[in-house]
């Protein structure tokens, strides 16, 4: 529960610090006194967005700090999961800087707004008039039924499977679309791949073929050059080899005379051996060289095939063609695997459907059992709130769709009077009836919920007299289960509180500010008397106020 609240530099509040107790607390004040400001400050602590208009003094930062006693609400796991320091007396602080930036802290650890909002779900429920209208929303109606049906854990398990089911369905649809779109593309890619495979390309092949082409295409010139070179090298009297041997023989005669001549002799010997080897190589090449028009045609055709493929695929090398061949193979392999993926994913989806249907059936059965309980309890409470002939008709309509909370649709119908047909809440219930129904719902949920604090913001709209007294009694009863705050204009409700706070405006040096004060017993009598009779408090109003308080 919330045990204290301090506000600095927020809206019309310059500085305020107040302590709260458990039980039933009342907040009253004239219209415009600042009750909505107090709720706004609490909203900021719970993670609502803020802006510079929140600052009273635009040059200073706004600080709102609330302390919560949470030892009884099993929140240690939440703190551990979010890497926060747990304290039985947890402090939440929100700061809004003059720059417009906002900061939030839980027990002095900085947190983002989402973490703050997640924690707030376990701390306070602020019931506004807008929330009364939300009672007509099917999702809100389901939450009420599911609370009584103890469906939350089952729904959480269902939602976990539903999330993976939806992901798998999206994947499956994408695969089916890809398979459909790739039909013609697959046929063309297969043609391209077969064309490349049949070419039997090899890395470095183009360079070898171009060299072979040059040889075969110029065979006569090459052979003539080789034979002429052999004649020059090996002619008996004037050939290079003959002359080298003559030089070698001449130098051999003087080699012994000095190391210089010996070195020259060795070098000419080496040249002679090398030239002899070259001559044999020329002979070899000449003998192997054949005029082969058929082979020239084969080489020419293979080169032309390579050039055509390079032009088609807009590349310049065989290696690039080989890479395209590998890529096409991978694409086709992936397309071949799609059918297998579709079959596997379809099977997984079918298994998830079985699990989802099992959870949905359990949720549905629990709701069937909970609806009479909810209906009877609502009728019982509303009879005491001046609605003796109220009836509810809640029908679950099974659906084939997987909703976020199961497979049910809901008709939540209502009749306030005998002889009138059932109708949708938002169409047939008046404002006062909606307020009473919502109070009854909250009173019932208080028994099933572990929420520490509930704030009613003018839930008494449209009621008065004995009905207001009964509403106050119900809120008083609820405060035995949880901390209850009621912002009210009705003295009958205000008198039921364990403590009473008044919001009022004061003016100092031409500056107006809102303040919140805990009233003493005497002040409380005066406040309720003023609520009964206005600014001029009569003796009868004072006596009536004392009666209500007693």
Automatic annotation (TrEMBL):
One of its GO terms (molecular function) is ATP binding. Residues 321-355 form a coiled coil. InterPro entries: DNA_recomb/repair_RecN (IPR004604), P-loop_NTPase (IPR027417), RecF/RecN/SMC_N (IPR003395). Keywords: ATP-binding, Coiled coil, DNA damage, DNA repair, Nucleotide-binding. GO terms for cellular component: bacterial nucleoid. Gene3D superfamilies: P-loop containing nucleotide triphosphate hydrolases. Residues 2-507 form the RecF/RecN/SMC N-terminal domain. One of its GO terms (biological process) is DNA recombination. It comes from the Bacteria. CDD domains: ABC_RecN. May be involved in recombinational repair of damaged DNA. Belongs to the RecN family. This is DNA repair protein RecN.
């Amino acid at each position: 529960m919330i045990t204290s609240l301090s506000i600095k530099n927020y809206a019309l509040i310059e500085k305020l610090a107040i302590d709260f107790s458990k039980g039933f607390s009342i907040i009253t004040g004239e219209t415009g006194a600042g009750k909505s400001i107090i709720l706004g400050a609490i909203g900021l602590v719970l993670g609502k967005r803020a802006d510079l208009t929140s600052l009273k003094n635009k040059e200073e930062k706004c600080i709102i700090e609330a302390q919560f006693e949470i030892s009884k609400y099993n929140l240690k796991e939440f703190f551990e999961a979010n890497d926060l320091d747990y304290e039985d007396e947890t402090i939440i602080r929100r700061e809004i800087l003059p720059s417009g930036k906002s900061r939030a802290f839980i027990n002095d650890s900085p947190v983002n707004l989402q973490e703050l909002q997640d924690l707030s779900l376990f701390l306070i429920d602020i019931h506004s008039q807008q929330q009364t209208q939300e009672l007509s929303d099917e999702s809100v109606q389901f939450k009420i039924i599911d609370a009584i049906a103890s469906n939350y854990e089952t729904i959480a398990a269902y939602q976990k499977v539903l999330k993976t089911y939806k992901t798998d369905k999206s994947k499956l649809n994408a695969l089916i679309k890809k398979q459909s779109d790739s039909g013609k593309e697959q046929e063309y890619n297969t043609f391209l791949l077969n064309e490349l495979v049949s070419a039997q390309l090899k890395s470095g092949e183009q360079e070898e073929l171009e060299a072979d082409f040059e040889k075969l295409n110029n065979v006569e010139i090459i052979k003539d050059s080789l034979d002429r070179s052999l004649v020059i090298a090996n002619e008996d009297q004037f050939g290079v080899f003959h002359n080298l041997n003559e030089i070698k023989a001449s130098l051999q005669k003087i080699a012994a005379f000095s190391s210089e001549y010996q070195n020259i002799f060795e070098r000419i010997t080496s040249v002679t051996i090398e030239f002899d080897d070259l001559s044999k190589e020329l002979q070899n090449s000449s003998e192997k060289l054949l005029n082969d028009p058929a082979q020239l045609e084969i080489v020419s055709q293979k080169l032309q095939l390579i050039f055509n493929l390079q032009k088609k695929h807009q590349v310049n090398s065989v290696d690039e063609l080989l890479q395209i061949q590998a890529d096409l193979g991978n694409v086709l392999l992936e397309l071949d695997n799609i059918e297998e993926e579709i079959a596997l994913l379809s099977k997984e989806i079918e298994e998830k459907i079985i699990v989802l249907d099992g959870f949905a059936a359990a949720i549905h059965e629990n709701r069937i059992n909970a609806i009479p309980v909810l209906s009877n309890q609502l009728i019982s409470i509303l009879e005491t709130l001046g609605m003796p002939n109220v009836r509810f008709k809640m029908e679950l309509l099974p659906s084939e769709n997987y909703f976020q909370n199961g497979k049910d649709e809901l008709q939540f119908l209502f009749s306030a009077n005998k002889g009138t047909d059932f109708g949708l809440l938002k169409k047939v219930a008046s404002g006062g009836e909606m307020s009473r129904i919502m109070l009854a719902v909250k009173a019932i949920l208080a028994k099933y919920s572990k929420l520490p604090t509930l704030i009613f913001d003018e839930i008494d709209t449209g009621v008065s007299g004995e009905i207001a007294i009964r509403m106050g009694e119900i809120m008083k009863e609820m405060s035995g289960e949880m901390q209850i705050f009621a912002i009210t204009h009705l003295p009958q409700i205000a008198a039921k509180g364990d403590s009473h706070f008044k919001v009022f405006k004061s003016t100092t040096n031409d500056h107006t500010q809102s303040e919140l004060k805990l009233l003493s017993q005497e002040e409380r009598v005066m406040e309720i008397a003023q609520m009964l009779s206005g600014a001029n408090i009569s003796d009868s109003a004072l006596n009536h106020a004392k009666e209500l308080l007693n």
